[in-house]
Write a structure and sequence with these properties.
alpha/beta; Rossmann fold; 4-stranded parallel beta sheet; two-stranded parallel ribbon; globular; SDR_fam; Short chain dehydrogenase
Length: 236
């Protein structure tokens, strides 16, 4: 996501707990001739989000794009879901989006020139599986919050949209496959779900995020952009 935004001219502040990965991303952006800094932080902690926004405004002058992009996934039916797993899902998948959107709005209103907020939801917000109760509930909440934010601040030029990807190559997807008794078969089963018989690439999702962030999407507000290779178009 960060590399795609930077390639289109954005100055990027990347936030995460994994410093090695964060600095690796920032270095790749700098090597390509673009601006980026890494802030080590945890988006499940409100003060870390506030600090990252402050760094962005201090280093680059303003916050124009906010992408709330975090996820925690647990495989469990409702009766198997622990309170700890529920709380972790809520904080990572929904509370982080609430805090990120809230403090982005505060900054953008103060700047007085609008902005774009992108909240990563999921195709799971449109459908469900029996063993993803916490994930489905929290990602559905992201879509509802996104619509409310869009309505509240549209007149001030602040847009807010949800990005809803299907399965794509990522550490979270790899971690899920690793929990399966036969990861190779599990991957093939997932690929079979999609009309294209493939798992999405990170760039497929990143390009959609870039569009939502751009001026070309000025008329796109309060919507949920699905990037799923046609998964939701299937009826069976």
């Amino acid at each position: 996501m960060a590399q795609a935004m930077a390639a289109e001219g954005a100055s990027v502040v990347a936030v995460g707990r994994n410093a090695d990965r964060g600095y690796e991303v920032v270095e790749s952006i700098a090597t390509a001739g673009h601006n980026a800094i890494f802030v080590r932080g945890d988006v499940t902690v409100e003060t870390d989000i506030v600090r990252a926004i402050e760094v962005c405004r201090s280093e680059f002058g303003s916050l124009d794009i906010m992408h709330n992009n975090a996820a925690f996934f647990v495989t469990a039916e409702l009766h198997q879901t622990t309170t700890d797993d529920w709380d972790r899902s809520l904080r990572a998948n929904l509370s982080s989006v609430f805090w990120g959107s809230k403090h982005a709005v505060l900054a953008m209103r103060e700047q007085g020139r609008g902005g774009s907020i992108i909240n990563t939801a999921s195709v799971a917000a449109f459908t469900a599986t029996a063993d993803t109760a916490a994930y489905v509930a929290t990602k559905s909440g992201v879509m509802g919050l996104t619509r409310s934010v869009a309505l509240a601040y549209a007149a001030e030029g602040i847009r807010c949209n949800a990005l809803c990807p299907g399965d794509f190559e990522s550490p979270m997807f790899d971690a899920f496959l690793a929990t399966q008794s036969d990861p190779d078969t599990a991957r093939k089963d997932f690929e079979a779900l999609y009309p294209t018989k493939r798992i999405l690439k990170p760039g497929d999702v990143a390009n959609a995020a870039v569009f939502l962030a751009s001026d070309e999407a000025v008329g796109v507000n309060g919507t949920s952009l699905v990037v799923d290779d046609g998964l939701l178009a299937k009826t069976y």
